[in-house]
Design a protein that fits this description.
The chain is an alpha/beta fold and 373 residues long. Helices cover 42% and strands 17% of the residues. It folds into two domains: 42 residues, no CATH class; 288 residues, Luciferase-like domain (TIM Barrel), CATH 3.20.20. The strands form four sheets. Strands 3-4-5-6-7-8-11-14 form an eight-stranded parallel barrel, surrounded by six helices. The protein has a two-stranded antiparallel sheet with strand order 1-2.
Length: 373
């Protein structure tokens, strides 16, 4: 029904108008755009100003969605409107499970409020596609995600068949996560060349391009979700994030590049992660529907002593200080209310709306979900 001139826009209409206005506005040359200009050009929200804000909001959301203020950090935070947008996933570990145990774990995840149940792809775990289908048979609401398939392990034609079959058996609940793989020993065991990071990203690019064509082939099994299940691609390097920004429905920020000096991955600090988020926004600017932003938490620790707990997690970011460790969205540390506020802050500042944890944190993070919902 048409609205009258005096009707207030709904939350959905407000968000839609804001996004349309931003996408329709002419953009200055990239060399003239600062990080804040790329993220938002909105002035201080009146509600935030009344709460004491003196600098423009850096939230990618429209002003009417900004309510309240975090006095400790000096910025506006999103409250109930944003809470309705947040999604939560958990990566389940199938190793050593009987079918009944696996299904019971998945039911528990659904009961705790998780929106997606992820199955990983490593040689020491059970195969991802059967695990995904069994997870779907035990649940009714969550998406079932491959988090993530090692695209380098698969013949693309056979992978397309398995993806379509899984989506059919899941009645359209599959979320397709693809990655490059990063464990060299697994490549060696599978007889697949490991190559360089550029080699692996190149093969991922090829997989994404070929899958599009294979799903269009009417002679093959067709997924329920058309033209394909929603695609999630994650990483930290610019090339893989560019691929995600231009092709995926979900961009997952790992915030943890390989660090030769440590011989493993290491977390970056908040400003470095923000730079990658801004990069993805620029790369996805021409898309009619913007991708969703996801992050995987390396650890979730419920505690009243945040600083001591952060010190115990220093192995994830050896060159970060305690404040930096507490600032990144790849670690959740604190009481359940503190972590809930941390999630709202990261959503307001970075536009993250999809948070994933590992199975060992499932129960503790479930307490956070309850507070937000």
């Amino acid at each position: 029904m048409p609205t009258t001139a005096t009707s207030a826009p709904s939350a959905t209409e407000a968000m839609s108008r804001h996004r349309h206005a931003r996408s329709a506005a002419p953009s200055p040359p990239s060399s003239e755009r600062t990080t804040n200009e790329i993220q938002t050009r909105s002035a201080i929200d009146p509600a935030a100003r009344r709460a004491g804000a003196t600098t423009p909001s850096t939230s990618p959301y429209p002003p009417e969605f900004l309510r309240g203020r975090d006095p400790a950090r000096g910025h506006a935070v999103l409250l109930t409107m944003l809470d309705r947008r947040l999604k939560f996933g958990v990566v389940m570990i199938s190793s050593g499970c009987t079918p009944d145990e696996w299904m019971e774990k998945c039911r528990r995840a659904e009961g705790l409020g998780y929106d997606a149940i992820g199955v990983p792809d490593h040689l020491n775990l059970m195969s991802p596609f059967p695990s995904a289908v069994l997870a779907g048979s035990a649940t009714t609401r969550p998406k079932i995600a491959t988090y993530v398939l090692n695209a380098n392990f698969y013949n693309h034609t056979l992978m397309a068949r398995d993806i379509a079959t899984a989506d059919i058996l899941l009645d359209g609940r599959l979320e397709l996560g693809l990655g490059t793989g990063y464990v060299e020993q697994e490549f060696t065991a599978a007889g697949v060349p490991f190559g360089t990071a550029a080699d692996r990203v190149g093969r991922l690019e090829s997989a994404v391009a070929q899958l599009e064509g294979l799903f269009a082939d009417e002679g093959s099994p067709q997924p329920v979700q058309r033209p394909r299940p929603p695609l999630a691609i994650g990483g930290h390097g610019r090339r893989v994030l560019r691929l995600a920004a231009r092709n995926a429905e979900v961009v997952s920020f790992t915030g943890a590049p390989f660090r030769p000096e440590f011989g493993r991955t290491g977390l970056v600090d908040g400003p470095a992660l923000r730079e990658r988020v801004d990069f993805v926004r620029r790369e996805s600017a021409e898309r009619s529907v913007q991708p969703e932003f996801n992050v995987l938490s390396k650890q979730t620790v419920l505690t009243r002593d945040r600083r001591a707990a952060a010190e115990a997690l220093r192995r994830y970011g050896p060159d970060l200080d305690t404040d930096q460790l507490l600032d990144v969205p790849m670690l959740f540390v604190g009481t359940a209310p503190q972590i809930a506020e941390q999630i709202r802050r990261h959503s307001a500042e970075l536009g993250l709306t999809y948070f994933t944890v590992m199975e060992p944190a499932m129960e503790d993070f479930g307490k956070v979900i309850k507070l937000i919902r």
